[in-house]
Design brief:
It contains 6 helices and 3 strands; from the N terminus they run H-H-E-H-H-E-E-H-H. It is mostly helical. Strand 2 and strand 3 form a beta hairpin.
């Protein structure tokens, strides 16, 4: 088995094209051979779970059946969810996740404290009670001015 058998098919095809000299014609037979080798070789099966598989499984386990988008899974790998990062490894131009790492991530997220939302303290952030009080004060000021005028 050569080192090329470890590299995913799309990367092998990309390498074939990138290293060809300008104007080189690549025989279709070479591409057919790569495709045949890829289909017949069980050693080329990617280890672990794809990000799509992680998203599908997380929908049922973490999000109450709501769909999980791929960018969310990538974010969990980069910066985490509730302070817990999803451990993944690069596989070609994407990531793969080992089953054990996925299970550990799910358990850690389930045991993590819920996300805390902080209210903004800017002047534009008003409560309903505060707005009602302002309206009542304005109405009484209007009535007082109407009586005087």
């Amino acid at each position: 088995m050569t080192t090329l058998n470890i590299i995913p098919l799309h990367e092998r095809l990309s390498l074939l094209v990138q290293h060809a000299l300008p104007g080189t014609l690549i025989p279709v037979d070479s591409i057919r051979q790569l495709l045949t080798e890829d289909a017949e070789s069980p050693a080329l099966a990617a280890p672990g779970m794809s990000l799509e598989q992680v998203a599908l499984r997380c929908a049922g386990l973490l999000h109450g059946g709501r769909p999980v988008q791929l960018p969310a899974v990538r974010k969990w790998i980069r910066s985490g969810l509730r302070g817990v990062k999803l451990s993944a490894f690069e596989w070609g131009q994407t990531y793969r996740v080992h089953e054990e790492e996925f299970e550990a991530f799910v358990e850690a997220v389930k045991n993590a404290p819920p996300r805390q939302f902080h209210r903004r303290t800017s002047g534009s952030d008003r409560t309903t009670v505060g707005i009602r009080n302002d309206i009542a004060a304005s109405l009484s000021q209007f009535r007082e001015e109407a009586r005087k005028g």
